[in-house]
Amino acid sequence: MKIRTSLFALLLVCVMLTLSLAACNNTYESGEDVMNSSCTDISTYTIVRVDSASGKLPNMTAAFKKTLLEYTKAELSVTTDYLKRGETLDESKNEILIGDTNRTASIEALEELKSKEYTNGFIIKATENKIVIVGMTDGDTILGIKYFINNYVYNSEKENTVTIKNGDSVIEKTGKLLYMTDNFNAVVLETLTDIYSPNTQKSTVQCTYGKIIKLEHNGENNGMLLATHETCNWTDGRYPVYRSTDDGQTWTEISRISDTLNKNSAPGWQPCIFELPADVGNFKEGTLLYAGCSRINNMAQTAMTIYQSTDLGETWKAFRNVDIVNGGIGYGLWEPVLMYEEETGRVYCFYSDDSDPEHDQKLVYKYSTDLITWSKKYEMVACENPALRPGMVALTKMGNGKYALAYEMCGDGCQIYIKYADSLDGWEPADHGKLIQTLSGEGMGSAPAIAWTPDGGECGTLFVTAHHVVNGSSSTKCDLFLSFDYGETFIDISNPIPNKPNDNIRSGYSPGFFVDKDGTVYYVNNPEYSPGGLNEKLMFAKIKVY
Fold it and tell me: Which whole number is the average pLDDT over 229-237?
């Protein structure tokens, strides 16, 4: 299924008539755009490409013509800039110029691009009767064509509406286009709502560690959404659970979870919510599990505690400590992640552990086949350098069968690394993996979340986000990073739930993803609630890749 957004009136492409600059220093990614809302009717234009073009540029020009015909109903002719002997150049014609043609507009645009001292990149510029797409190389020009299609051809005439083309049929969907790939697969924000907001702007509530699931093993209740978050700074000190029965449009708090297993305990730290996809021991398929950290006897001990619910999250019972260690902050356990492995019938609990005196912190796991008896502790990431502190497990299984782990490496700027394993028990602790970075070197730092959907191309789409952007600038400060090749390369797009991390607020700290059986991505994050305040709200986004 491909996506195409509706066009402006009379199905004419809307082209910005002031300078649109899309060029980058030492990168193939798009850069600054400076544009206004003027539109032009391209049905009167001719596509002109440079006559000396070779390789893929002529084919891309033909594909460009086909795209314009399909979505503007304007059948533009294609020619080259070749002049016959004695022929005079007529620059009064309306033309879309592809590459470094002999037209004045092309020459001036390329000179402007070169004046920026870029080693590669492209520029898109519109004059009174010319639209120029030219790059430093033919490859850069091709990228410029793709950028033009993605950003100018696909514009919506209806606010918050996109048109999806599936075969010969066209379906309108409510949403916002977040990104379109080179192959015209699109990432679309379909829903954006609040789950929880503080009662007062003077509140100090911090809704960190937002997590979400969609029920898929509870019969007639399948489709119900449940969300939760940490209760840092809450006077209540219990985990809240919220429910939505209308696919995230509205939310209601249905319960708060107390630790009745550990005496003198204070729950409320770093939750994980999970639905059993199969029977495990005496626990039936569809049972809800909840894991979190409790501080015992004023932080003398830390427990990794698991709770269960058999009534769709309305009541909960703490029934097991997966692990318990002496010491609170600095000597405790952090951030559990529950996962089920179908091949072995095991439920795994992954978490951060700083109780080992030989490591500042390491990533570890235990597993169980009955949720009562748990294995010994295994290492997932353990650094030789004691100054390095890996933390905050984020896991997903991809379509190639591999599990992808994203985690922060503090001691190295808390940058986000990614590594892979063939099974949940197949991690090489000494392998740090690699930094998650875009081609331009932009990365992310602290508190990652990761998810994979089969939609978006042959390799599906890998989503990663984190607390903040590293080595780059960002309009949202917490971009979504996408990979369409199982994590080999990444691009960054604006986050639909942007946070503003700073010294006074923990907004955007450890967001959550869930991907359902249909490939829909459900996403929760905690942006700042009031400007300059110390409080946050929990927000929900539904994202589809077509």
Answer: 74
Identify the CA nearest to 481 among candidates 505, 512, 510, 449. Answer: 449
**Higher local confidence (pLDDT), 544 or 52:** 544
Residue 66: per-residue pLDDT: 84
Q: How far apart are CA 165 and CA 537, in angstroms?
A: 36
Contact 383, 354 (CB under 8 A): no
Residue range 428-448, pLDDT digits in tens = 999 999 999 998 899 999 999
CB 417 within 8 A of CB 432: yes
Q: Which neighbouring-strand residues pair with 415?
A: 409, 445
Pairwise CA distance, residues 252 & 288, whole Å = 18
CA atoms within 13 A on the CB side of 247: 7
Q: Report pLDDT digits (tens) over 317-345.
A: 999 999 999 876 667 899 999 999 999 99
d(CA 13, CA 237): 55
Identify the top-confidence range among 31-40, 180-189, 357-366. Answer: 357-366
Average pLDDT on 169-174 reads 60
Per-residue CA distances from 460 to 185, 407, 521 (Å): 10, 21, 12
Q: Are strands 521-525 and 225-228 parallel, antiparallel or unpaired?
A: unpaired
Tell me what pLDDT residue 454 has: 97
User: Measuring CA to CA, which residue among 318, 320, 241, 315 is closest to residue 273?
Assistant: 241
Backbone φ, ψ for residue 142 (5° rounding): -60, -40
Residue 200, C-beta contacts closer than 8 angstroms, at least 6 positions apart:
none
**Max Cα distance, the chain (Å):** 96
Residue 508 CA, chain-centre distance (Å), reads 13
Please compute Rg for the chain using Cα positions.
26
- Which DSSP string corresponds to 340-378? EETTTTEEEEEEEE---TT-S-EEEEEEESSSSS----E
CA dihedral 276, 282, 284, 285 (to 10 degrees): 40
Q: Which residues contact 17 (CB under 8 A, 6 or more apart)?
A: 36, 38, 40, 126, 127, 128
For the chain, give the mean pLDDT: 85
pTM above 0.90, yes or no: no
Residue of 457, 392, 455, 530 whose CA lies nearest to 190: 455
Closest CA to 249 of 545, 546, 544, 539: 539
* Identity at 371, one-letter amino acid code: L
In angstroms, the CA 310 to CA 314 distance is 8
Tens-place pLDDT, residues 96-140: 999 999 999 999 999 988 887 766 788 888 888 898 999 888 888
